[in-house]
Design a protein that fits this description.
The longest helix is centred in the N-terminal third of the chain and has 35 residues, at 3-37. 67% of the residues lie in helices and 5% in strands. With 449 residues, the protein is mainly α. The chain is built from 18 helices and 4 strands. The protein has a two-stranded antiparallel sheet with strand order 1-2. It has a two-stranded antiparallel sheet with strand order 3-4. Helix 6 (148-165) packs across helix 14 and helix 15 (349-362) packs parallel to helix 18. It starts with a helix and ends with a strand.
Length: 449
C-alpha cells in the first residue's frame, strides 16, 4: 500500500532535481562562456576572439550531472564522512611530533630545489597572515575583510624607513609591527558597535582606503610606481650578497670562507620566514590560553553574555584588532624584504579574500588548521602548474594564477558542504567544567583550562 506514495515522492524528487540541474547548467553557461569560452588572441596589431565551446560544454555537463545527483552523492558522502580531528596525544608525544616536524621543515630546503624553497617561503608569509587574521575572526569572532591593509602598512613601514632614514630590516621589523597594531587600534574605534555584515563592509573600506592612499601620496610613497631597491635582511650584520654595499664591509660568504651562491639567500629567507611563522604560532597559542584569549572566546560566542560577566568588550575588541594587525605588519615587513619592491598593486582586495579563505578552510579558531590551509592553498597553485593533464585540457599556455580564485572558490564550496567548520574545527572552549567528588562524597564543579 505504501509503495505508490513512495514512488510518487521519488518521482517528484527527480523532477525537482532535474529542474535545479537545468537552472544550474544555464547559469554555468552564462558565467563560464566569457571566462573560458572566449579567448583573446593577438594576430599582428589586431585581436581576435577564438571560441572554446568544448570548455563550456564540459563545464555545463559536469555541473548538470553533479546537481542532478546531488542528494545521492553529497548527502550520503556527508553522512558517512568521518569528522577530522587531531588525535589525542600525550604531552610527550606532542613534543616529539613537533620536534620531528620542525626538524623536517628546517632541513628540507637543503635538499629541495630553488623554486620549491621560494614557494615555501611565500607559504610561510601566508601562514603568518592567516594566524593574524585568525586572532580577529577565529578567536574574537569579528569578520575582517580589510586585513590586507595591515599587511600593506607593515610592508611600507620598512620600505619608507629604509628609503628616508636608511634603517635595516631588523631595525624596522618591530616598528612595522607596532605601526600595523596602531592602525588596527585606530580601526577598532569606529567598528565597536558594528557586527556581522556591517563590520565586514567597514573593514573592507578600510583596506581600500589604505591602498588608495598609497596610490595617491606620490611624493611620499612613490604612488603606483612603488618603492624599489629594498635590501634583504642581513645575518648578524653580514650581507648575503656577492659584494658588500659599503666600502670595507664583509659579506656572509667572505666571513665564513665560502663560495658565493645565490641559493644561500633563498634558503636564509625561508628559514627566517619559518622562524617568524613558528614564533607567530607560539604567541597565538599562548594568547588563547591567557585571560585575554578567553575573553575573545566569550566575545565570539555571545557578546551580551560577555558583557554580563563584566568583561570590557571595548578593550577586548581593540586588543584583537591590534594584535592581529601586528602579525600582519610583521608579515608585510618580511614580504617587502623578500621582494625588494612594494607597490599598491600587491595589496588588493583579492589578497584579503585569499587570507579569509585560508582561515575559513583551515577552521576558524584552529591554529594548526590555518597553517595547513595556507601551505596547501599557496603550494597547491604551483602543483597545479606542473600537472600535465591540465595543460592538455587548457593548453600549453595554462597559468593557474589566472584561475586561482576559481580554484579557491571551488575548494570553499566543497569544504562548506562536507566540513562547514573547516578542515580542523576548533570551537570547543579552552575552559570547561568537570565533576569531582569532595571528601564528604558530594559532587563539586571544578574548572579546568
Amino acid at each position: 500500500m505504501s509503495t505508490a506514495p513512495a514512488a510518487s515522492a521519488s518521482g517528484a524528487g527527480w523532477r525537482q532535481n532535474l529542474g535545479h540541474a537545468l537552472m544550474a547548467t544555464v547559469l554555468t553557461a552564462i558565467v563560464v562562456t566569457p571566462i573560458f569560452g572566449l579567448h583573446l588572441e593577438r594576430a599582428g596589431v589586431r585581436t581576435h576572439i577564438v571560441p572554446r565551446w568544448d570548455m563550456v560544454g564540459w563545464a555545463c555537463l559536469i555541473v548538470f550531472v553533479v546537481q542532478l545527483l546531488h542528494p545521492w552523492i553529497f548527502g550520503r558522502a556527508t553522512r558517512r564522512l568521518p569528522r577530522l580531528a587531531l588525535p589525542a596525544l600525550s604531552a610527550r608525544q606532542n613534543t616529539v611530533l613537533l620536534t620531528l616536524v620542525l626538524l623536517v621543515a628546517v632541513t628540507w630546503p637543503f635538499f629541495a630545489g630553488r623554486n620549491a624553497v621560494d614557494i615555501a617561503t611565500l607559504a610561510m608569509i601566508y601562514v603568518m597572515l592567516g594566524l593574524g587574521l585568525n586572532v580577529v575572526v577565529g578567536f574574537a569572532g569579528l569578520l575582517d575583510l580589510g586585513f590586507v591593509g595591515f599587511y600593506a602598512v607593515g610592508a611600507y613601514t620598512y620600505a619608507l624607513l629604509f628609503h628616508w632614514a636608511g634603517w635595516s630590516f631588523w631595525e624596522a621589523l618591530p616598528l612595522a609591527g607596532a605601526a600595523a597594531a596602531l592602525f588596527g587600534f585606530v580601526l577598532g574605534f569606529p567598528v565597536l558597535r558594528l557586527r556581522g555584515d556591517y563590520l565586514a563592509i567597514v573593514t573592507l573600506g578600510f583596506g581600500e582606503i589604505i591602498r588608495l592612499l598609497l596610490v595617491n601620496l606620490t611624493s611620499f610613497t612613490g604612488g603606483p610606481d612603488g618603492i624599489s631597491s629594498i635590501p634583504k635582511p642581513s645575518v648578524f650584520g653580514l650581507e648575503m650578497a656577492r659584494s658588500p654595499s659599503v666600502e670595507g664591509g664583509t659579506t656572509f660568504h667572505q666571513f665564513f670562507g665560502l663560495e658565493f651562491n645565490s641559493l644561500h639567500m633563498v634558503i636564509f629567507l625561508y628559514l627566517m620566514a619559518l622562524l617568524l611563522a613558528v614564533v607567530t604560532l607560539w604567541i597565538s597559542n599562548r594568547l588563547i590560553r591567557m585571560p585575554i584569549g578567553r575573553a575573545w572566546e566569550a566575545l565570539r560566542e555571545d557578546e551580551i553574555a560577555c558583557r554580563s560577566l563584566g568583561i570590557n568588550t571595548t578593550k577586548t575588541k581593540l586588543t584583537a584588532f591590534a594584535l592581529g594587525a601586528m602579525f600582519g605588519g610583521f608579515a608585510g615587513s618580511f614580504f617587502a624584504a623578500r621582494q625588494g619592491f612594494v607597490s599598491p598593486e600587491s595589496f588588493t582586495f583579492m589578497e584579503s579574500a585569499v587570507i579569509v579563505a585560508i582561515v575559513v578552510l583551515g577552521g576558524m579558531g584552529s591554529m594548526i588548521g590555518v597553517a595547513l590551509a595556507a601551505v596547501a592553498m599557496i603550494g597547491g597553485t604551483e602543483i597545479l602548474r606542473e600537472l600535465d593533464f591540465l595543460k592538455a585540457v587548457f593548453g600549453e599556455g595554462f597559468d593557474p594564477d589566472q584561475y586561482r580564485m576559481l580554484f579557491f572558490g571551488l575548494a570553499m564550496v566543497l569544504v562548506m558542504i562536507w566540513k562547514p567548520r573547516g578542515f580542523v574545527s576548533a570551537r570547543e572552549p579552552t575552559v570547561f567544567l568537570t565533576e569531582r567528588k569532595s571528601i564528604s562524597g558530594s559532587l563539586v564543579k571544578e574548572g579546568h583550562g
